[in-house]
Design goal:
Elements: E1 2-3, E2 12-13, H1 15-32, H2 35-63, H3 69-90, H4 98-126, H5 133-143, E3 146-155, H6 164-173, E4 175-187, H7 196-199, E5 200-206, E6 209-216, H8 224-230, E7 243-253, H9 262-273, H10 278-281, E8 289-297
Helix pairs in contact: 2-3, 2-4, 4-9
Length: 298
Amino acid sequence: VKHTSHSERGQIYIPQINWILMVACIALVVGFRTSGAMAAAYGIAVTLTMLLTTILFATMTYKVWKWPLPLSLAFAAFFGIIECGFFFANMFKIFHGGWFALTVAAVIFLLMTTWKAGREALFSSIKPSLLPLSRFLEEIQKKQPSRVKGSAIFLSSTVDATPLALLHNLRHNQVLHETVIIISVRTELQAFLSSEEESIAVEDLGNGFYKVNARFGYLETPNVPMVVSLLPDFGVPVNSSQMTYFLSRERIVPCKSPRLSPIRRAIFSFLARNSISPADFFCLPPDKVVEFGVQVQC
């Protein structure tokens, strides 16, 4: 995702999507052959876009601009009636090419809602196995597992929970590194953060454990190795020659669940397998990454 504005976070450009659109547009023109044949698909797409834009804009006037509800409804009704007239006039063309625009919209809608529902189902399945970090540190203090030299770095999306990779590493290897660093990365609404003090916050949890909150502007690359290289300035003893990044990778296991239908589960599994890996997204060096596979039922 390429951000193209220093002031608008939502103004983005995705090169791969642009290439897909180019190929799709060429195929569309070749398939329909004439502008007259494309008019039906074009009419459905444009009139629905106008109608949806009116609905979204009216919603924004009420929820964001705090217009009175009758005024927002009157605005939506004035333009909506006109646009509904255009849309119903084009409905007769659905079987003459309009079906194409509706099919494309339905497929994209299915993919987007499946990804959202799948991520929610994935988190719901993982949540019961998450251990509060404070409780994990208490158990470590009591049991005192063997410690080995070096620094272990774990990425965590949940600040107060123990990373699954940390739990699996201790469960399977029965050891902990002498320095354990848990890093949470967050992207802010501003384009850039001005200083290290503003972007990095370190908390010493005791017993060789450190929690790091790293913040990046939306125009910045979430470079975790860069954050790690700055940690000695914050009093964290990082051994760069004996340093390993530990990640967990979820593998979706089919099960009978009301969260996702079998078809949507298969789609989500395909999307998850082909999404960018955390190691690439956070610029981690491949030769210093260890991944633990986690089977999740959803």
